[in-house]
Specification:
Blueprint: H1 7-10, H2 20-28, E1 30-34, H3 40-50, E2 54-58, H4 83-94, E3 99-103, H5 112-115, E4 121-124, H6 131-143, E5 148-154, E6 157-163, H7 170-174, H8 181-192, H9 219-238, E7 248-253, E8 258-263, H10 271-284, H11 301-309, E9 321-327, E10 330-336, H12 349-368, E11 371-378, E12 384-393, H13 423-431, E13 437-442, H14 445-463, H15 466-475, E14 476-477, E15 482-483, E16 487-488, H16 496-505, H17 509-518, H18 523-535, E17 539-545, H19 552-571, E18 574-578, H20 581-590, H21 599-615, E19 622-630, E20 637-638, H22 643-646
Helix pairs in contact: 3-4, 3-9, 8-10, 11-12, 12-19, 14-18, 14-21, 20-21
The chain binds flavin mononucleotide.
The site of flavin mononucleotide has 20 residues, from helix 12, strand 18 and strand 20.
């Protein structure tokens, strides 16, 4: 065992993959790395461990808490310290003999020439948004015949490109000159990831915010990017095998189990890239994409709590609330109902459940900051409730176990895994309800079949009722995966042809009547939306009250419990879909609430009510009906209005 540093011994385990001579070649090479943050820090460490000994390094920034998730040098003891000094220290702990030339002012027009002097390869690790220095450094690399490589951490993968001397250049590939800063970001992004493997699992697209220079990034992507970079550098230095130059690109995604080789001849002039650019401009550069439009940067405790609260679910994603900030730690919730235009909310109780869900979400969010919510309410106007929330420090409050699930909880309307609940899961769900509420489970095949039949019948009521048509035609965002204000088509759970049939039908009531009469129009959607998913579940459940609930306050309290129940199912790895309309129509029929003028629809609703009553013990006490099943989070969901839109001026 040798405990003092010796180059040949330190890198002897590389030999086998390199020859000893090749290791000596690596020892003589000089690499320039711009940026010691997300990928740059790992690049330095990895290249040092590869046996590279000469570096030109730049960074002007200091480590901070928000770098913790992905940056090699970010830890509690380095917060506030220069990234450059910290990383050099770490690198010298690995190889004390490395030679470094430092550029603590970062790279700019004045020093890029010096930064690239005598350099054998440039490894790009500039911040994604540092476009100007990136253009300069790549231009100079091309002029000086320095190979350059860039591997971007993208989600759980990496997309990588090489720019070798004499081949297509950075500018020829990306074509950034003459575009606005935002357009340059977009073009750079599209050129980096032509395969876009990450697209399908970006759960919160609002976090990819080019306009406000923000994007999500994981350690997985950074570490993969750094391994790939070191491999490219090795091959370039040792002339070992093909190194692909743009317009070829490579993208490996560990999450998708996919590897794609892309080819974009003509680079940015390629018609596919041009099309992606025009679509991307609409999707990513329009101001409403930004979570801080209207100048709201989330700062105060009240805003931090409300940024969780806005993820509360509401019937048809109506988000029946607006927030008025009073000061840094208190706010008013103006909670409206939707009875004037939503047939599922004629007594306001669907909204009241959602208001309870919102209040519970606020409670859970406040626990993150050790805060208790003091809530006073004014329910005098039944259509516009007012809750004043004061957040107060309370040392007895600890972070709720449900907090991590507030933003990921979503409706799963598709078929789910059917494996039954085990006793522990069933008990955890039953125990999360307060006294006075209990669950009736429907788990056997016959039970699920009965629920499938009930939902199939009930869906006929919904889809043949003119009053519901008025709602449906407004609440679906066709061809969308995500929607801020509605339910996106892909979250409905129908396949593409059925979605097109529905879109065609929903253009006018006449079309629906025609399709219902001559084309059995509702059958296909009802099979896909109701019958099959009902069977493809682990269980259906009815949450019932010991004593029938009737008042606004009782519905709000029940809503709080439902949110705990829903979040607990998410915590346990289940998907969840409410099946509230049978409950609602039965209540309307019991309470003589007129919901349609069509007698045939009323007959069908009565048929559904009978089926509902035959299944449930104490149907009139049922607060919430739904189904759960083993499921990954849905790929499509209703995202929410940005906080800036939900916060209103003083009334
Ligand atoms: C009180 C209430 C009732 C709901 N009823 C139904 C329902 O009957 N069927 C359904 O598919 N979704 C139902 N939803 C789900 C909402 O449509 C969904 O929560 C909303 O669109 C937001 O989407 P997210 O939960 O995926 O974030 C209900 C939600 C709430 C809060």
């Amino acid at each position: 065992m040798n405990h003092s540093f010796e180059y040949d011994l330190a890198f002897s385990r590389n030999i086998g993959w390199f020859t000893e001579d090749e290791q000596q070649i690596l020892k003589t090479k000089r690499i320039a790395i711009a940026g010691m943050g997300g990928v740059g820090g790992f690049h330095l460490i990895t290249l040092v461990r590869l046996g590279i000994t000469k570096f030109h390094l730049s960074d002007f920034d200091q480590f901070a808490c928000e770098n913790t998730n992905r940056q090699a040098g970010a830890n509690v003891s380095t917060y506030g310290k220069d990234k450059l000094d910290t990383m050099v220290e770490m690198a010298k702990q690995i190889n004390p003999e490395i030679e470094v030339k430092l550029f603590p002012e970062g790279i700019n027009d004045e020093n890029t020439e010096e930064f690239l002097e005598d350099v054998d390869c440039y490894v790009d690790s500039l911040d994604f948004f540092a476009i100007k220095p990136r253009i300069t450094v790549f231009k100079l690399c091309a002029e000086k015949h320095i190979p350059a490589t860039t591997a971007a951490p993208i989600g759980f993968g990496t997309a990588y490109l090489n720019f070798l001397p004499g081949k297509m250049t950075f500018e020829e590939y990306f074509g950034l000159n003459g575009f606005t800063e935002n357009e340059q970001y977009l073009k750079f992004f599209l050129g980096l990831t032509p395969a876009a493997l990450q697209k399908s699992y970006l759960v919160d697209p609002s976090k990819l915010d080019l306009v406000n220079k923000k994007g999500p990034s994981t350690i997985v992507g950074c570490q993969l990017a750094t391994g790939v970079t070191a491999a490219q550098v090795t091959k370039i230095f040792l002339n070992r095998g093909d190194v692909l130059n743009v317009p070829w690109g490579l993208h490996f995604d560990a999450y998708k189990n996919q590897f794609k080789k892309t080819w974009r001849p003509l680079g940015h002039k390629n018609p596919i890239q041009q099309l992606a650019f025009s679509i991307g401009k609409k999707k990513l550069l329009s101001p409403q994409q930004s979570p801080i439009v209207g100048g709201i940067v989330i700062q105060t405790l009240a805003e931090k709590v409300l940024d969780y609260a806005r993820w509360s679910p509401s019937g048809d994603n109506t988000q029946c609330w607006r927030f008025e900030l009073i000061n840094e730690s208190s706010f008013i919730i103006h909670a409206n109902d939707t009875r004037d235009h939503v047939v599922y909310d004629l007594d306001g109780h669907s909204s009241h459940l959602a208001h309870g869900i919102l209040l519970e979400t606020i409670n859970i969010a406040a626990s993150k900051f050790g805060l208790k919510c003091n809530v006073s309410h004014d329910l005098s106007n039944d259509r516009l409730l007012k809750f004043t929330v004061e957040l107060v420090e309370d040392e007895t409050i600890t972070e709720s176990v449900l907090l991590p699930f507030v933003k990921v909880r979503a409706v799963q309307r598709r078929a789910m895994g059917t494996q039954v609940l085990n006793n522990a899961e069933r008990k955890e769900l039953e125990d999360c309800l307060p006294p006075g509420l209990s669950v009736q489970w429907f788990e056997s095949f016959n039970d699920k079949l009965s629920l499938a039949k009930l939902n199939f019948t009930n869906a006929k009521t919904r889809l043949t009722m003119k009053e519901a048509y008025a709602v449906h035609k407004e609440i679906i965002e066709w061809k969308a995966q995500f929607s801020e204000t509605k339910i996106p088509e892909q979250a409905l759970g129908v396949d593409w042809p059925t979605a097109r049939l529905m879109q065609w039908m929903f253009k006018s009531w006449e079309r629906i009547s025609f399709a219902n009469k001559f084309l059995a129009g509702t059958i296909l959607p009802r099979i896909q939306l109701d019958f099959i998913p009902s069977l493809k579940s682990s269980a259906h459940f009815a949450v019932r009250a010991d004593n029938k609930i009737e008042t606004t306050e009782e519905y709000i309290e029940a809503g709080k419990a439902i949110q705990r129940f829903w979040l607990t199912t998410t915590k346990l790895g289940f998907g969840f879909q409410p099946e509230q309309t049978p409950v609602i129509f039965s209540r309307y029929l019991d309470n003589d609430i007129s919901f349609t003028e069509d007698s045939k629809v009323i007959e069908n609703a009565k048929k559904g009510k009978k089926m509902f009553e035959a299944l449930i013990n104490g149907p009139e006490n049922t607060v919430f009906l739904g189904r759960i099943g083993r499921s990954a989070p849905p790929k499509s969901r209703s995202i929410r209005r940005p906080l800036s839109e939900l916060i209103i001026e003083k009334t």
